[in-house]
Design brief:
mainly alpha
């Protein structure tokens, strides 16, 4: 083999490795973008979960308060609530 054929083979190998390196870099960039998207979705999901938990606690408190309220007071409050609803429907 001549010096120039060896040099040519080295250039071909170098070009192949550069191409493979570029492809791997592109894959890594795409994966990083996907990870960023997933992290954003996870954060949104976590916020919604916390809001749902908070709403559930508020409902549980309302139910506990309602159950702790004497029946006569509850019926009075229900009547007031029904009257308000009738006013808004008119």
């Amino acid at each position: 083999m001549t010096f120039f054929s060896i040099l040519w083979k080295i250039e071909v190998l170098d070009a192949n490795y550069r191409c493979q390196l570029w492809e791997k870099d592109t894959e890594i960039r795409e994966m990083k973008d996907q990870i960023k998207e997933l992290v954003g979705l996870l954060r949104q999901s976590e916020i919604k979960r916390k809001e749902a938990e908070k709403e559930l606690r508020v409902r549980e408190q309302a139910i506990a308060t309602t159950l702790a309220t004497p029946i006569s007071v509850r019926s009075y409050l229900l009547k007031i609530h029904a009257k308000k609803q009738l006013r808004f429907k008119r």
